[in-house]
Each structure stands twice: as structure tokens, then as C-alpha cells.
Structure prediction request, 151 residues.
Amino acid sequence: MKKAKEQKLIDILESEATSHGFELVDVEFSGSGHSGTIRVFLDKEDGLTIDDIVAANKWVDGVVENNEPFAGSYTLEVSSPGIDRPLRTRQHFERYVGEEVKISSQKVDGRANWTGLLRGIEEDDVLIEIDDVVYPIPMDAIKKAHIKGRI
Prediction:
């Protein structure tokens, strides 16, 4: 569940990313007031190179500039999703079944933080297994989710 500004930028960047051969993994805003940080996570089927990120930074910067998500200045970061890859779409959750994940959600059965094995999607619920019990979390209740990084 993204904030309106984040979702607006995701909607705009998604088609632009696809036209440049990238997958838009996620967009995050942090900071407040007249400065902040916009993080744009991109990926490609064969992974990203430094040259890919440099090239993407140019068109991402243009899209962000044209949409002015902050009233003041901001820092733009374009990167790969890394080992703590964010999970935002149904396809992301389907692709990473079997991985250990961390999910922050609105309260579901009195709980808002979940860490366990991603077991899949059933209708509009993400299934997470914790201590041999599978819990359904409605997709529209999820605030943030990512693969738990491995060392």
C-alpha cells in the first residue's frame, strides 16, 4: 500500500522502465519538509550493470523532474534491488515463493510484522509460513515487503 505520491510516480515510471528494457521493482520516498530522497529500484532479466544504472539515471531523472514529487530539493538514487529485494506486485510474490521474507502490514489478526517463508499467493492473499503455520495476509494490507537478505 503506497502513498499517493509514490503510487503516482510508480505509475509513470513503470511504462517508461519497460520501454527502456527495465523492470521497475519499487519506488521509495524518505525524508520530509523541503528535501527528501527518492529511491528507484530497477532490474533487468540478466541483472544490472553500472552502465545500465548510469543510463537509467538520466531518463529517471527526467521523469522525476517533470513530476516534481517534492516542493523543494531532493536526492535521487537509482539502483538495483539488492539482496533485500522489495516485493511490491503479485508477480514479485509469485517469483520468490520459498524465500524468507519480511512483511509489514496493517494489523491482521492483531499482528503487523511478519518474518517467515513465502508460500505463495491465494486469491488476493500473500501466504507466509511462520513456525509451521501458514498465515494469509491481504495484499492490500501490505505496507512493505522484502526478501530477507542472506549473508
